[in-house]
Design goal:
Structural class: mainly alpha
Strand content: under 5%
Distance between the termini: 115 Å
C-alpha cells in the first residue's frame, strides 16, 4: 500500500494550456488566419474579375467597331432599297385607283376627268393651230402651232403617262410608261426648239427687236428651262449608274421640280400669247377667256400628281438622310 504512488494533480488550471495560452487565444488566432486567407482569396478573385472585365470590354469595343463598319457599308444599300420600295408603293397606289371592283365610282370619275382634260388640251391646241393657218401660211405660223402642240399636247401626255393618270397607258408596265414618257418628251423638245427658231428667224426677217414683251421674256425663260429639264431627265434615267455623283432619289426630286416649274411656265406663256395683240385681232374677250379657263384646268390636272410624287420623295429623302 505504502509503495503505491498517487498521480500528481495538474499544475495548469483548466482552460489554460502549458504555454500559457488560453482556448480563447487559439480561437482568436484561428479567426485571424481565416480572415487573412479570405482576404487573399478575395484579392485573387478581384484580380481575376478585373482581367475578365477588361477582356469583355475589349470584345465589346471590337463588336461596336464591327457594327459601325457594317452599318456604314450597308447604309447606301438600305437607302436605295427604301427609295425603290417608295416608288413601288406609289405605283401600287396608282394601280389601285383604277381597280374596277373596289373603286368603281372613283374610276368613273377619273375617266370623265381624264377625257375632259384630253379634250381641252387638244381643243385649245387645235384652235390655236387653226388661227395660225386660217389666213395664210407664213414662218410665224409654225411658232404658236409647235409651241401649243409641244407643251399642251405632247408634254401633257408625257407627264400624265408617267404619273399613271393617262387612260391610254395607265395599265401598261412602268418601264413601258417610262419609254412613252421619254419619246413624247423628246418629240416635244424638238417641236419647241423648232418653234423657238421660227420666231427668232421671223424677228430677224421683220427687222424687229427680240424679247421685248412679257410673252417673249417668259417664252425665253421657258425654253431654257425646258432644255434643262430634258437634260435632267437624261440624268434621272441613268441615276443608278450615276449614284456615285448624286443619289437617285435626289435626281428624281430635282427633275420633278424642274419639270413642274417648266410646265407651269409653258402654260403661262401660252396664256400670255392668247392675250397678245396678234391673237386679240381676230378673237373676242369671251373666246380668249374660255381658252384661258381651259388652259388653267388642264395645267392643274397635269401637275397634281407630279407635285404629290415630289413631296413623297422629299419626305423619303429626309427620312433616310437624317
Amino acid at each position: 500500500m505504502g509503495n503505491e504512488t498517487e498521480s500528481e494533480p495538474s499544475s495548469v488550471p483548466y482552460g489554460i494550456l502549458e504555454n500559457g495560452a488560453t482556448f480563447a487565444d487559439l480561437e482568436s488566432g484561428d479567426r485571424a488566419a481565416s480572415s487573412q486567407r479570405g482576404t487573399e482569396n478575395n484579392s485573387y478573385h478581384h484580380g481575376e474579375d478585373c482581367s475578365v472585365i477588361t477582356a469583355a470590354a475589349a470584345a465589346a469595343m471590337e463588336q461596336v467597331e464591327t457594327d459601325e463598319t457594317r452599318f456604314a457599308t450597308k447604309r447606301s444599300q438600305t437607302e436605295e432599297e427604301e427609295e425603290t420600295r417608295e416608288d413601288e408603293q406609289q405605283r401600287q397606289q396608282q394601280q389601285k385607283r383604277h381597280q374596277p371592283q373596289s373603286v368603281r365610282m372613283l374610276s368613273k370619275r377619273l375617266v370623265l376627268v381624264n377625257l375632259l382634260a384630253n379634250f381641252l388640251m387638244f381643243a385649245i391646241a387645235g384652235f390655236i393651230t387653226y388661227h395660225c393657218f386660217n389666213k395664210a401660211t407664213v414662218l410665224f405660223s409654225w411658232h404658236p402651232t409647235f409651241m401649243a402642240v409641244g407643251y399642251l399636247v405632247l408634254m401633257s401626255q408625257a407627264v400624265l403617262t408617267l404619273s399613271g393618270a393617262n387612260l391610254l397607258t395607265y395599265q401598261r408596265h412602268h418601264k413601258t410608261r417610262v419609254l412613252v414618257h421619254w419619246l413624247l418628251q423628246a418629240v416635244a423638245g424638238v417641236l419647241i426648239t423648232v418653234a423657238f427658231v421660227c420666231i427668232v428667224l421671223n424677228k430677224i426677217r421683220m427687222g424687229k427687236a427680240h424679247f421685248q414683251t412679257t410673252h417673249g421674256l417668259f417664252g425665253l425663260i421657258t425654253v431654257i428651262l425646258t432644255l434643262v429639264s430634258i437634260g435632267g431627265g437624261v440624268f434621272t434615267k441613268y441615276g443608278y449608274q450615276l449614284r456615285s455623283v448624286v443619289r437617285p432619289i435626289y435626281s428624281k426630286i430635282m427633275h420633278g421640280v424642274a419639270g413642274t416649274v417648266t410646265y407651269i411656265l409653258g402654260s403661262v406663256t401660252i396664256g400670255l400669247g392668247i392675250y397678245s395683240r396678234w391673237f386679240e385681232e381676230d378673237n373676242g374677250e369671251q373666246v380668249r377667256l374660255a381658252l384661258l379657263i381651259g388652259l388653267i384646268a388642264v395645267t392643274l390636272y397635269v401637275i397634281i400628281n407630279p407635285i404629290a410624287a415630289t413631296i413623297s420623295r422629299t419626305k423619303t429623302a429626309l427620312r433616310t438622310t437624317l
